[in-house]
Design goal:
- By secondary structure, the protein is an alpha/beta fold.
- The protein folds into two domains: 116 residues, Rossmann fold; 231 residues.
- It has 14 helices and 14 strands.
- The protein has a seven-stranded parallel β-sheet with strand order 10-11-9-8-12-13-14, with helices on both faces.
């Protein structure tokens, strides 16, 4: 079985599996201009979000960290940062931080460029030059030690913990054994299983951080009088046969495999070690994936039992169905059917190997269904909704 893929080597030593020119809005007020620039220039992707204005403290720093991290992601070859000019998160600061990754970065301020129409025109010219640069880059063979895989599950059902998630975990174990990195996020879906993760930590510090991540999210919910169990498992999870949050968590943690956990990092931070890494993140899919993209993840595996079409702006998302009925019903969106495990026609190992091969193929350029359909959903988590 091969352990290499064809990727884009970046000047800072990382490797991309895609070659996007990113039009990044620094603030919600610049979203329309960023989208219109991207529409004008083929080969670009717009990253828009609802933040950047009137943010302060931890929330401001978190939004900035995620935007910078996504701009630095190896799947991005060049970045045009589009700002309004009066936002709390400076476009120039974002661009300067991204430029550390040694890729072309420029800024465009709407208030300094005559408003919407003039900014779109100027931005399109900058983007065209960046696409010309990106189009000259070629794929090269690289090892799996260059890969950071993000894992995600959404719309889980009773089959998640016995088919798609452990099969995804089997593939993740192969990646880690080959020197790659896997990220397990969604802290709210570790509740009740955190002690099992802590037992797999390589040292006490990492174990303590895992337990603290879970305690912190529970304490936050209690501080505002919220019972997590009224939203998790969600109504769709319950309709799919999941009965408790603990049951959901036991299935959710299986999607990242069985290896030792080498590090536990905050939302949107980049791993400093290779292997299986825990990231604190919400259970909301697009916000969780945003943190993983900021971490440098180039590919996302996304298991689902009820069905989810969401993708991401810069990383291919591989959708893995937990049951054959879903795979048939939402075939437009599902890349892999793990329901064959439940059907008895394939073993967990066989499906795991199929997922592993799909990861390598997608890393080398094969498009996922979410990419083909243009799914580019993204949101950034907030810590405090009042500032």
């Amino acid at each position: 079985m091969r352990n290499t893929f064809l990727g884009y080597k970046r000047d800072n030593g990382t490797v991309g599996v895609r070659n996007h020119v990113l039009i990044l809005s620094s603030v919600v007020c610049a979203s329309h201009v960023a989208k219109r620039i991207s529409e004008e220039v083929q080969g670009t992707v717009a990253l828009v979000h609802e933040h950047g204005c009137a943010q302060n403290g931890e929330d401001k720093e978190q939004t900035k960290r995620v935007l910078v991290g996504i701009g630095k992601n190896p799947n991005v070859s060049a970045v045009l940062v589009v700002g309004l000019g009066c936002e709390t998160i400076s476009s120039d600061e974002i661009a300067e931080s991204i430029s550390i990754s040694k890729k072309p970065v420029e800024t465009l301020i709407i208030q300094d460029n005559g408003g919407t129409l003039e900014s779109i025109s100027k931005g399109a010219k900058i983007a065209r030059e960046m696409v010309d640069y990106a189009s000259r880059l070629k794929r090269e063979e690289v090892g799996l030690d260059s890969l950071i895989l993000a894992t995600q599950c959404g719309g889980s059902d009773a089959g998640s913990g016995i088919s798609a998630n452990p099969a995804s975990g089997y593939a993740c174990d192969l990646i880690v054994k080959a020197g790659g990195t896997v990220i397990l996020a969604e802290t709210t879906e570790m509740i009740g299983a955190e002690h099992l993760l802590a037992e797999r930590a390589v040292d006490k510090e990492t174990a303590d951080r895992i337990l603290w991540f879970v305690k912190r999210v529970e304490d936050r919910a209690k501080s505002i009088g919220v019972d997590i169990r009224l939203a998790n498992p969600a109504p769709g999870n319950i309709a799919g046969g999941i009965t408790t949050l603990e049951e959901k968590s036991l299935g959710a943690i299986a999607k990242a495999g069985t290896m030792s956990i080498v590090e536990a990092i905050e939302y949107g931070f980049q791993p400093t070690k290779k292997g299986l890494v825990i990231m604190d993140s919400p259970g909301q899919d697009t916000a969780s994936v945003a943190g993983e993209l900021a971490s440098g993840s180039q590919i996302v595996t996304f298991t689902t039992g009820r069905g989810s079409p969401t993708g991401s702006p810069i990383a291919p998302v591989i959708k893995i169905a937990t049951n054959s009925l879903l795979y048939s019903r939402m075939n437009d969106n599902m890349d892999i059917n793990a329901g064959t495990i439940i059907d008895g026609t394939e073993s967990l190992e066989e499906v795991g190997n199929r997922i592993f091969k799909e990861i390598l193929d997608v890393a080398s350029g094969k498009l996922t269904k979410s990419e083909i359909l243009g799914h580019r959903e993204l949101s950034i988590d907030r810590l405090n909704p009042f500032y």
